[in-house]
Amino acid sequence: MTKLLKLIKIVPEQYNESKISFWAYIIFNILTFATLIYSLVIGEYINCFYCLLAFFFLCLPPAFERVHNAYLPPLFEVVIMIFIFSFAILGESFSFMTRIPWWDTMLHTFYGFVFAALSFSLIEILNDDSKLKFKLSPGYICLSTIGITTLFGVLWEFFEFFADHILGKDMQKDFIVKSFQSTFLDPSDSMHPFAVSNIKSTIINYADGQTLTINGYLDIGITDTIKDLAVAFIGSFVFCIFLLAYLKTNGNNKVAKLLVPVKREGKANHEFKNFLIRNKSFFAYIISAGISYLIDISLFALFLKLFSKTSFPISAAFIATVCARVISSLINYYINKKKVFEYNENKGNTLLKYYALAIPQMLISAFAITYVTKFFAIKTTATLLTSVIKFIIDVIIFIVNYIIQRVWVFKKKD
Description:
Elements: H1 2-8, H2 10-15, H3 19-42, H4 45-58, H5 60-68, E1 70-71, H6 74-93, H7 96-99, H8 103-127, H9 132-135, H10 138-166, E2 175-177, E3 180-182, E4 194-196, E5 202-205, E6 211-214, E7 217-219, H11 222-248, E8 262-263, H12 271-278, H13 280-307, H14 316-340, H15 349-375, H16 383-409
Antiparallel strand pairs: 1-8, 2-7, 3-4, 5-6
């Protein structure tokens, strides 16, 4: 418990190195907490998730500094906090993404600037040489910084495409356009772009005879994707202007020093890093569970789409659940065995032990939630309270499951 309390103190202690960062951290946490309470009162529980996400992200900059012995200038820390608050609270909880047309564009520009700075800091962190940045060509460093930032931007667009087409979301926002060109409509099939212009409306005909009219032509996602990547590039390019000034003056440019993260001189404080190393199997277990959950929910959506078109006597949802759970659990078993607990002994009974633990775990979760709600006379319509109870029970089972897997399923010989 003492170690945990010391770790909880790390965030305010790290921010306390600068009054600007500290008070910005306090203010943004108060605003986030107020949003959390407001969301609970009005019943917008998905916004509670975004508030918790904001709390988590606000803790990352000081954790990054402690783990990598880095120094984030106070102004840059404030920029990061503004970005987090603008995305999770204003953008998602208060729907600025849809209410303000340019909000999403602004966030992606912010992203380009912030991630370019963090990408540059990797040069020192990964090479453990605080002088390396002044030995390399400034142009090469800027190109590398923009390249890494663009790579993360492309991976994010992959995620948005995946969420839209597999999970049925709409993260790649659509645009109404009045003209387009397409070789698909070329009557000669000679790959010449066929131009369609002055589009007044598009009519969508449903199978049941209903229609939907759109004032123009609906461009699905591609314009949003290119716009997001373009403004992220602009954001990273703007940071590189400050970075060039910083590199050309060997780190003495007063304005650039306010925005460029660097590696600290002197001995690193490894308290937080040592904590992560000592408990790496548990954190790896959490990551493994998260990966398995994403695979499970993605496969469920995919199988549900496939099986909903068939005429099985069993419901498509049941078949999709079983198929997705079998695949995701096998992947979870393999990750836990090889990466989490690093179990390399050739024993075939670990798979049987894994499922012997997983099946009762699922049943205990279901029965525990049922009996706890009955014991405290909680109505099933009390969605929030039931969800909180389920979360507490699942967390307890999650921790117990980790302990049992470590001491029984994947127990190593002494």
